[in-house]
Design goal:
Pathogenesis-related Protein p14a, single chain, alpha+beta
Length: 214
């Protein structure tokens, strides 16, 4: 099932990987797409490696996002170009509005600054992902007083259906059926830090909340 996506971007107002194995630490999360990504220089994008409040997969979401932002053309060439065939969805390559537009955007854009981890954003994302997962909720509304108090973001993306960091980022970038391309705009926007929480979901198996701050 294709991941179900939602978007909320708020402007203004204060709404407001480290590996255990020394061998695995040298393997990029994008190595499946190209061994080029295993070069040491790309590990600088792993800005959340020491954020012990997040899981390895949550930190890897920020890692992958930074690889996209810092090396957009290479990401387009090695990852997005192969994604339809490697994901078993060859028809996706024919999609002009969502898929082809992403290729063009990444090929033409200048590199963006890397994002750092933000613990307040993480606590905001965690509360929402936990409650949404338990209740089967899909959306951005904070459905408890606790989560409302912890809400801290200027932009938010919610993804449903996968707990794989690379899949989460690619799906949000393609933004299938979101005509505003709002997720893509947030991921490639001017935000400077983020918190990520991946939690079980009673309907979609997993839900991921990414909260962003300037």
């Amino acid at each position: 099932m294709r991941n179900l996506l939602l978007l909320l971007s708020l402007i203004g107002g204060n709404i407001s990987i480290a590996q255990n194995s020394s061998t695995s630490s040298t393997i990029s999360p994008l190595a499946t797409y190209s061994s080029e990504w295993n070069q040491p220089k790309y590990r600088l994008c792993n800005t959340a490696a020491k954020a012990n409040y997040m899981s390895e997969k949550e930190k890897t979401v920020i890692y992958v996002l930074n690889l996209v932002r810092t090396y957009p053309a290479l990401f387009a060439k090695t990852v997005i170009a192969q994604y339809p065939s490697l994901s078993g969805n060859n028809e996706l390559a024919k999609d002009q509005f969502y898929y082809q537009s992403l290729l063009t955007t990444l090929q033409q854009m200048a590199p963006l600054p890397m994002m750092t981890d933000n613990e307040k954003c993480y606590q905001s994302a965690l509360c929402h992902a936990l409650l949404s997962g338990k209740t089967g909720y899909v959306g951005h509304k904070r459905n408890s007083e606790e989560c409302e108090k912890k809400k801290y973001f200027y932009g938010e993306c919610c993804d449903y259906g996968s707990n794989d960091p690379v899949e989460i980022i690619i799906t949000l970038l393609i933004d299938k059926d979101i005509t505003s391309l709002g997720h893509r705009k947030i991921l490639l926007g001017k935000y400077t830090s983020a918190g990520v929480s991946i939690q079980p979901h009673t309907t979609y198996r997993f839900n991921t909340v990414l909260d962003f701050y300037f």
